[in-house]
Specification:
about 25% strand; 7 helices; Nitrilase/N-carbamoyl-D-aminoacid amidohydrolase; 6-stranded mixed beta sheet
Length: about 260
């Protein structure tokens, strides 16, 4: 792989809210396979260990710590950057829906806490609102992070462009089949608006709709999952971001609030 390229994979896994051990086993089995040998970056879905079974999350703190250590070890052994969303709980009992970045050295190098909590699932009764942007460096790429419902807020994605000039976004999710057309449309829209790659990893099973997507800065879908568990892969190139922004320079023409008159 060239220095300005990344081979990325989205593990579109079945998330079982009634069996945390089964979810852990799925992740362990993934790392045991040779499928990851060629990857530089792996994304796991939102709350891939627990799903949204709030009443059971209070008992998972010890399990989360062991999982953090396990993924750190696997990231180091596979020389792989890993992103995935888990529950972060502090000593006072406050919780955040949090994406971790494990670097290829095994260290946690970035965390993003979900900013837009989903009212339909009453997330705000269980989670705290996140504290702001979190950009992540992987090779020649700088990625902005978001989680699931954040996808509906284009100003978050624009903020990453204004502040960090990112080349891509990483989005773990648990998006339902009932609104999967919204998912597909919005993932492509965020790529087109920001002229950036979008790595959108959804879960499957139960009400979850799959359709994980890797989208080019011009909106072309490079790879897409179906409705079953799968590893969705593609190669990203920094030069493609630069090329498209030169061919069609819309991001460079963004205006300030003052120019828009508000």
């Amino acid at each position: 792989m060239k220095p300005d390229q990344l081979r990325v994979g989205l593990f579109q896994m079945k998330v079982n809210e009634d069996d945390f051990d089964a979810n852990l086993f799925s992740v362990q089995q993934l790392f045991a396979k040779s499928l990851l040998a060629e990857l530089d970056l792996l994304v796991l879905p939102e709350l891939f260990l627990t799903g949204f079974r709030y009443e059971k999350m209070a008992d998972t703190r010890k399990l989360h710590h062991s999982l953090l250590d396990f993924i750190a070890t696997q990231a180091r052994e596979h020389s792989l950057e890993v992103f995935g969303s888990l529950v972060l709980q502090n000593d006072e009992g406050k919780k955040w829906n949090t994406t971790y970045q494990w670097s290829s050295s095994g260290a946690v190098t970035a965390v993003y806490q979900k900013l837009h909590l989903f009212p339909y699932l009453q997330e705000a009764t269980f989670f705290e609102v996140g504290g702001g942007l979190a950009a992540s460096r992987v090779g020649s790429f700088l990625f902005g992070q978001a989680i699931c419902y954040d996808l509906r807020f284009p100003e978050l994605f624009a903020a990453y462009q204004r502040v960090y000039q990112v080349q891509g976004y990483i989005l773990p999710a648990q998006w339902p089949t009932a609104r999967i057309r919204h998912w597909e449309t919005l993932v492509q829209a965020r790529a087109i608006e920001n002229q950036s790659y979008v790595l959108a990893c959804n879960g499957v099973g139960g009400q979850l709709g799959g359709s994980s997507m890797i989208v080019h800065p011009d909106g072309t879908v490079l790879a897409k999952g179906g409705a079953d568990e799968d590893l969705v892969e593609a190669v990203l190139e920094v030069e493609e971001v630069k090329r498209w922004r030169e061919v069609f320079p819309s991001v460079s023409q963004w205006k300030s609030k003052e120019q828009y008159g508000y």
